[in-house]
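Running co-folding for flavin-adenine dinucleotide.
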Amino acid sequence: MSKSYTSNIESFKQAIEKLEYKVSYHNLDQFNVLGCIPSAVITPSNIKELSKTLTTANEHKLSVSPRGGGTKLELGNTPDSLDIIIDMSRLNKILNHAPADLTATVESGITILNLQNELAEHGQFLAIDPALPHIATVGGVLATGIAGPMKWQHGSPRDTVIGMKIVSPDGTITKSGGQVVKNVTGYDMSRLHIGGLGTIGIIAEVSFKLTPLPPKQLTILASFNSNRIAAEVALEIFNSNLMPLAITVFDPDSQDRIPDIGMNNPVLAIKAAGRPATIERYVKDSTSIINKFGSSNVKVLDQIDSKPLWEEISNFGWDTLNSEILLCRASVLPSAVPNLIESIEKFEYDQSLIGKKISHPAYGTVLVEWYCGNGPLNNETVSTILNTFSGLIQRLDGSLVIQRCPRKFREEIDVWGKIGSSLEIMRRLKNQYDPNRTINPGRFIGGI
Amino acid sequence: MDKLTSMIADMKLVVGETYVIHTVEDLLVFEYDGSADKALPDAVVLPSNTTEVASIVKIALENEIPIIARGAGTGLSGGAVAKGGGLVLSLTRMNKILEINSKDHMAIVEPGVVNIDLSHSAEKYGLYYAPDPSSQKACTIGGNVAENSGGPHCLAYGVTTNHILGMEVVLSDGSTQWLGSNTREFQGYDLRGIMVGSEGTLGIVTKIAVRLLKKPESVRTLLAVFKHIEQASSAVSGIIAAGIVPAAIEMMDHICISAAEAAVKAGYPQDAGAILLVEVDGLTEEVAEETEEIERICDNYNPIEIRKATSMEDREKLWEGRKGVLGALGRLAPNYYLVDGTIPRTKLMEVLSGISDIAKKSGLPIANLLHAGDGNLHPSVLYDERIPGQTKVALDAGAEILKLCVDSGGVLSGEHGIGLEKQEYMPLMFTQEDMDAMSKLKPAFITMDMLNPGKIFPTGTPHVQISQGPAVARTGAGAYK
Ligand SMILES: Cc1cc2nc3c(=O)[nH]c(=O)nc-3n(C[C@H](O)[C@H](O)[C@H](O)COP(=O)(O)OP(=O)(O)OC[C@H]3O[C@@H](n4cnc5c(N)ncnc54)[C@H](O)[C@@H]3O)c2cc1C
């Protein structure tokens, strides 16, 4: 640690202490980001304090990392540097909920669950179902852009945001969008921040468009002899007239956290919503498609009974503190999913890898979790194995992101995978909005 | 040889003699778009593929002449007008549907493809392209991407940005990039999402990967006629409160109704104060359940009449009045100024009454046509540009309406974009810091301010020219269907 650095942090501390914010210098290691331990944790209680914290940090040339619920800190590269954690947990208010307009504006530190609970009282919900909603915050979910199984019908988190207030690295507060559901006034700036891993600015407030809670909801489950067939059936549903909320394939045998549903073989889960006759139609048509593919093991769960199942599907890969996990997300065209699943199974067999898989075929997503405690994945092999794996996905015109990766492998691999020439635009964007590389330096794609 | 002449010669080498337009008579057609702003470009070039676009962009850069991308020219905010001259790059020759991937519900198209043509081509696979601006028989997908266009059916299915997977763009330096992906997920910043709605100021879009949706198995349209607009408005709130998001909820006030009646004889009752057009689609059971409920809700507000239709022809009849209304307004006045603000749905009555005050004050009738479901208003100020001073009165009334929208928690534009038309009003919504943050996108896309310069952001000079009449004349009545 250089001397000038030490004096920077000291004078920052003095400057910030004058501001009477909640500052903490204790238990800092629990705020580590991939092993980097901050020198201070600041917990602003409103957007002004947030702005002031950033201005001060920026002036002192210190690097800052915003923290929501801390559920997805493993996503991305190890930070190039980390001085201050900005804990967003006190920016947790619902600023406005207009049920009749189906819109809400919230501070970004609110947890998804708290928001959903409030909305549910008015028969509405935010159409995203990410992992660990009781801990994950709106800001964190948007910054990572990782959605749950419902994304097929309702789109990614990008599609629910109608406006944002952002605090720039120098503390400037800017807004974009608005609080109405249809708006093309000015550039759609929120796009930069959603999925941008907090590298452009800190998301302080968000306006959402909401969805009415469906009158009735149920889940149709069927088991098949292979994951591949289950995925093919999922695509058959995708191509039918049905538009379920979610279609997911998983293998209960390999999943310790998925609640027991009394099925052992690969399972297809279809979440349907609507009024009674509509729901009945879902059951009827899904069952006949399932039967056509040779399965007669069909089960229907009501909303309450299926809730734990969908929660675990959302949580897949994120609900364990085990740091020996390699979590991969492959994105391909829907029609490539059955082949991809089969190739992954063969690949796992060839490499003697033990894994868990879950896929959302209609969205083209396959998630794979490999355990690397004492198996074939080690420092010598990991990059070769992942190269082969990523080649397999590229042959299907898809892309691969390593969402979680044991620290010991981080030197060997690029978790973000390949990206084309547009990386240059992305670098210039970072440079435009955060020239001092104050927030989350190095964490994003291409070391941005 | 002057600079322009030599540039024209260079461009002819790239695209061929016929596809560079430079005589004043020929340029006149490119003088305006659907808005009223007019400006004569220095030249127009019509490339036929991405490589040609890239070469043209390089030539323009060498000659330091700005480029204005242009689709069908139906834009209503002056986006395709070569303010201050420049080179208009028309993408209408790039109109091929390159691929329809029916298995994955997506297509790759060139930017000049006309919106409705894509849905027609996808029909045989049981698919369609959801965003449906009323100009869909004329406007291009490239123009839709640039404006992030909406349409009546965007209530349930979202606007253009929700349907774009990725795109190929040519940047100001002539480099070509693919932004986004063909798949639903991708890595890095959402450059694709930034490009959508950027009004041709960040790059030239040369290919677009779009999502297609399955054609619904059942569609039902319901037309409810009310004596008072308050009743229609309450019915809209009632539908939303019941947790129903129909595919479309459109509303017309009595001025629109009488214009439509005179033009298409839709058979609306004489004393109708407002009409609601609600469309529900999806599974047969779903459509039946939802229309039943919508009908019950409308019944609560004393409708004069409710009509329903399921067959294609009958539905077309119900839509006829709505779709013909812009053309029909021409019967009431030679010109109209169509405003495009969005407000929170719950402020509808308040804003409509404000608009009626503005109409009284200005002495000009204002017809209200609204995408009521999402609060997107299209008040149309009727006027006659031949009467000295009236254009200004109409323009001022429009500005007041926009101000009213913003004051009610709404925004300047729901779907038509800012362009030249509304650039001076941007400060009503945004601070200088907000706009500075937006402008920083330009250097990241290395635009060197050569792409559609002088648009979107305020210049400090008042906007004077206005008349959307020509757009109506040129796109023809069919454009509204
Ligand atoms: C009668 C009528 C009804 C309308 N109804 C609706 C409606 O319901 N909903 C709605 O949203 N709009 C509507 N519009 C507005 C207009 O049709 C849309 O904005 C449409 O998307 C414009 O498409 P265009 O091809 O005509 O684009 P143009 O007008 O030619 O251009 C519009 C903008 O896009 C840019 N641009 C065009 N092509 C490209 C490209 N390839 N790359 C980069 N930039 C490009 C231009 O520079 C310009 O800024 C209507 C217009 C009319 C005249």
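Result summary
The pocket of flavin-adenine dinucleotide is lined by residues B 33-34, 68-76, 79-80, 91, 111, 133-135, 139-140, 142-144, 146-147, 149-151, 199-200, 204-205, 326, 415-416, 452, 471, 475, 479-480 (CB under 6 Å).
The first strand of chain B starts at residue 20 and ends at 21.
Job closed.
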